[in-house]
Amino acid sequence: MEKAGSVPSAPGNPLWLLAEVTYKCPLHCVFCYNPVDYATSGKEISTEDWLRVLRQGRELGAVQLGFSGGEPLMRDDLEIMVREARSLGYYSNLITSGIGLSEKRIAAFKEGGLDHIQLSFQDSTKEMNDFLSSTRTFDLKQKVAKLIKQYEYPMVFNCVLHRHNIDHVQQILEMAEAMEAEYVELANTQYYGWAYVNRDNLLPTREQLKRAEEVTNRFRERVGNKMRIFFVVPDYYEDRPKACMNGWGALFLTVTADGLALPCHEARMLPGLDFPNVRDRDLRWIWYDSPGFNAYRGDSWMKEPCRSCPDKVKDFGGCRCQAYMLTGDATNTDPVCSLSPNHKLVTDVVDRAQLPKAPNVEVKPIVFRDDKNSRALAKAGLSNTPA
Amino acid sequence: MADDPKAPAAVADDAVFEIHPHFRFQWEPVPKTYVLLFAEGRITLPGSSGEIMKRIDGKASVRAIIDDLQAAFPGTDLRGDVVGFLEHVHGKGWIRPKRAG
Q: Is pLDDT of A122 > 90?
């Protein structure tokens, strides 16, 4: 019999710091991973708070830094953070829709030492791009893509895939190629935040997924090393869970717009963990000693079938937030796993997606991410409760 | 072809290389090692690989790099190792020939 091994409970140092500098965003994407009640979150932390967080993160050994959001360009002190990040020795990445990236700002980022820019698109056509983000931004993104090349940044092109755009993967890849992207991320929607609210509208069929992967593989063969293409399958179609965040509190540290420190950008939904705020505590205590970051380290918190499973050292039982959203208990096995007694919660959703037209499409409209919907969802208490 | 940065590596003695601008090479104090950072990744360059990379500055020729290393680490002939390493990392796209001007 294979022995289960054990998951280390003592952490190494964090390598990645994700700075979600704002929840504000000019787009209204239906698949946004931000909390659905973001509009009721606390006041944004100050420039000084962020500079302190960057210093403390670097002292802990973090080296990769992501500026994300919301749309990070909505903060007009981003240039100050970029400059500080470079002087501290981070490799920094701006994760952006491109909205608000003027030539003046990109020049300042280059000069300040920003290392790369990841630009998101919603689709290959103006119509679908603008529909899915509920804005008119396609042409603007094209202009930003040119600026990124002009300033000699590696182009990291990101497109979130789902039922409504996955059949356009060929065109999406051609667009990325025309923009001379070095890296392309075709990331299927993961069902958190707004994407969870819109799940039945977004989950592609098995057939769609298969075709998209075939197209991607053919494209890869043709372009070779010129463009590195990552295709991320929606985990609902897997039968083993993802190694979420490479383990709880193992490599990643997220700080939200209002200063909460989290082991992943979704974790604030989990009840009873009371995550610390960077206004009150330093990152060293947060990373090594806070109850929240230690809650799911190691494997003593695990239940069966994870506890005795040899795969627990590889996948850590999957995603705590997904376990909570789907089963109401974050210590359960991620229901994506076929060994989970709750696996049917996932397969039922997948089965529904195979129907010629998902039955909910007509009765349940797509919910765009905006402040009004966010306040309504928060009021209805839908932010922290499993469906 | 000489201008093509993706051309097969010809590591001549008078060639000058620089770190490709899509990568950043630096010393990391916490793990105490040289690293090469790039979009969403990190390669650690311990020992001799870090020592060679830190001399690639867009100014020193291959000959100067070999001489400098030879002075720092006397005893064995390093030429073959250095040229082999430069060919390898050029093939990976981590360094590129410095253009004249």
A: no
Chain B residue with minimal CA distance to A60?
Answer: B30
pLDDT tens digit sequence for A301-342: 999 999 999 999 999 999 999 999 999 999 999 999 999 999
Against a cut of 0.80, is the pTM above it? yes
**Beta-carbon count within 10 A of A51 CB:** 17
Binary contact (B40, A93; C-beta < 8 A): yes
Tally C-beta pairs within 8 A across A and B: 37
Strands B41-45 and B33-38: antiparallel
pLDDT one-digit tens code per residue, B39-82: 768 899 988 999 999 999 999 999 999 999 999 988 888 899 99
In eight-state DSSP terms, residue B30 is T
Which residue does chain B place closest to A89, by CA atoms? B26
